[in-house]
Each structure stands twice: as structure tokens, then as C-alpha cells.
Write a structure and sequence with these properties.
191 residues; alpha+beta; Lipocalin; 8-stranded antiparallel beta barrel; 3 helices; elongated; disordered N terminus; Lipid/polyisoprenoid-bd_YceI; YceI family protein; TTHA0802/YceI-like_sf
């Protein structure tokens, strides 16, 4: 290959392999999984659907609280109205740095990355750090999953006091542990 063609080949390869790192990203099929503990013995699992995107080194993930699914619709309604008060506070928003430079570069490779973000809800913005296992599945797709749940204090989100008491009264619980154990799964697609 002559030197000009060689330089064109290298420049083209660089551009093609760099596009997924520079492009914006869209979150598909995102889920927040959680469990909480009521009456000191019963775990309550559930999920929320999430949407989001990343661009210019930042990400935003929106947790739509109205999508709560604990596999028991009456319980979902109670949690949404008494605890989360979704009519007034319909979503949580997680914002942080998107470490595009740490994404796995080739198909089939993985990377373990600590994400640092602020979780915006009810006028509060606690900072949380969560580990994320990233798996490159094709040139424009990265699967993301937390390898273990992260403890999130309900007080950090304004969910203790009146909201928690209202939930306990409505459902006749003796107690609700003021911590939720949260994990995430989703697919990031390069635009």
C-alpha cells in the first residue's frame, strides 16, 4: 500500500472506531430494580422503567415513578400515592459524567466502571456512586448492569417522615426499612 493510501486507511479506521465514543448515546430497555424490607422480614421487589441519554461527557437517566411494578397492582397504587406522591413528584433524575473513554472498545469485551452521579428528587440531590459492568455487544451497543445492588437511603430522597409514615399506616406495616437496595440494567445505543 502506498503511503497516501496507508494514511487514508489509518485516518478512516480512526474515525470509524472513534464514532461510538464521540457520538451521543440513547438508553433502551432501561430498568431500575429494587427491593425494600417491610415488617423486618418481607422483601418487596419491584422495577421502574427508565429512559435516558448521554452526550458531551454527561448522562441523564429519568426514572418514571408511575411505571412502578411490584407484580401486585394494589400495592403499586399504594406506593405511588402514599410514598412517592407521583402526582406531585412523578420522576427521579440521575445526572452525572458519562465515561465514554472507559467503555469497552471491541465486541465481546467488558469494563467495570464506577459511575458518580446526583439523584435529583423532591428538591434533594444526594450524590451516589454505583459500579457498572459494561459489555460491548456490537460497534454501537453497550449492555450495562450493576453487578450488585447499591443501598440508597430513603431519607436522602425525602421519603422518611410523613411519606414513610403514610405508607406504613395505609398498608398496616409495623416498619419499613428506610433503605432500598437498587440495581440497574439497560442497553446504551450510540446515535
Amino acid at each position: 500500500m502506498n503511503p497516501l493510501n496507508q494514511r487514508l486507511f489509518v485516518a478512516t479506521a480512526f474515525v470509524l472506531f472513534s464514532l461510538p465514543l464521540c457520538a451521543g448515546w440513547k438508553l433502551d430497555d432501561g430498568k431500575v430494580h429494587f427491593f425494600s424490607v417491610k415488617d423486618n422480614i418481607a422483601a418487596v421487589p419491584g422495577t421502574f422503567a427508565v429512559t435516558g441519554g448521554a452526550k458531551d461527557g454527561s448522562f441523564e437517566v429519568v426514572v418514571n415513578l408511575d411505571t412502578l411494578d411490584t407484580a401486585l397492582p394494589p400495592r403499586d397504587t399504594n406506593i405511588k400515592t402514599a410514598l412517592f406522591e407521583v402526582a406531585s413528584f412523578p420522576k427521579m433524575v440521575l445526572k452525572g459524567a458519562f465515561p465514554a473513554d472507559q467503555l469497552p472498545k471491541t465486541v465481546g469485551t467488558t469494563a467495570m466502571v464506577d459511575f458518580k452521579a446526583k439523584l435529583h428528587y423532591r428538591g434533594l440531590s444526594p450524590e451516589i456512586t454505583f459500579p457498572m459492568l459494561l459489555i460491548r455487544t456490537d460497534a454501537k451497543t453497550v449492555q450495562a448492569v450493576t453487578p450488585r445492588p447499591v443501598a440508597v437511603g430513603m431519607a436522602d430522597l425525602g421519603l422518611t417522615g410523613a411519606p414513610l409514615e403514610a405508607m406504613m399506616k395505609l398498608c398496616a406495616h409495623q416498619s419499613i426499612l428506610p433503605i432500598a437496595f437498587v440495581s440497574f440494567s439497560g442497553t446504551w445505543q450510540a446515535n
